[in-house]
Design a protein that fits this description.
By secondary structure, the chain is mainly alpha-helical. It folds into 2 domains: 5-69, Arc Repressor Mutant, subunit A (Orthogonal Bundle); 72-125, Diphtheria Toxin Repressor, domain 2 (Orthogonal Bundle). Helix content is 71%, strand content 5%. It has helices spanning 5-21, 26-33, 37-49, 65-87, 92-102, 108-125; strands at residues 53-55, 61-63. A two-stranded antiparallel sheet has the order 1-2. Helix 1 crosses helix 2 (26-33), helix 2 crosses helix 3 and helix 4 (65-87) packs across helix 5 (92-102). It is elongated, with a radius of gyration of 16 Å. The chain starts with a helix and ends with a helix.
Length: 126
């Protein structure tokens, strides 16, 4: 099943919060994304029913293997795109915003070519 862009954003946010805080809760997600708790609660219900997350015994959000795989792919795209954009001179804030949009629509082939190009550029600087 193809996950929507909003679902990818939620999964990525959960991953980021887990990396940063060791745990992700609905309230943390709402604060991070500046969304209402009700919106996040509805999204978590949909993600849970789709098998992307589980709710722990202290109400923490836990990524399933499938959810983690999607979150890590989206996060890798975001980081790589942001790095590439800043490398070519885009201001960091704009690069971050643009990467967030691009990460959902870029094809795997284009992303892999962009990632290889970025690695070649970085290696040529060393």
């Amino acid at each position: 099943m193809k996950i929507q862009e909003s679902g990818e954003n939620y999964l990525e946010t959960i991953l980021i919060l887990q990396k940063r805080n060791g745990i992700a809760r609905s309230v943390d997600i709402a604060n991070e994304l500046n969304f209402s708790r009700a919106s996040v609660s509805r999204a978590m219900s949909l993600l849970k029913n789709s098998g992307y997350i589980e709710i722990g015994n202290i109400n923490q959000i836990i990524l399933t293997d499938t959810g983690r795989e999607i979150a890590e792919k989206v996060y890798e795209k975001h980081c790589t795109l942001r790095e590439f954009l800043t490398y070519i001179g885009v201001e960091k804030e704009i690069a971050t915003e643009d990467a967030c949009k691009m990460e959902h629509i870029i094809s795997e082939q284009t992303f892999e070519c962009l990632k290889q190009t970025l690695n070649k550029l970085k290696n040529s600087m060393n």
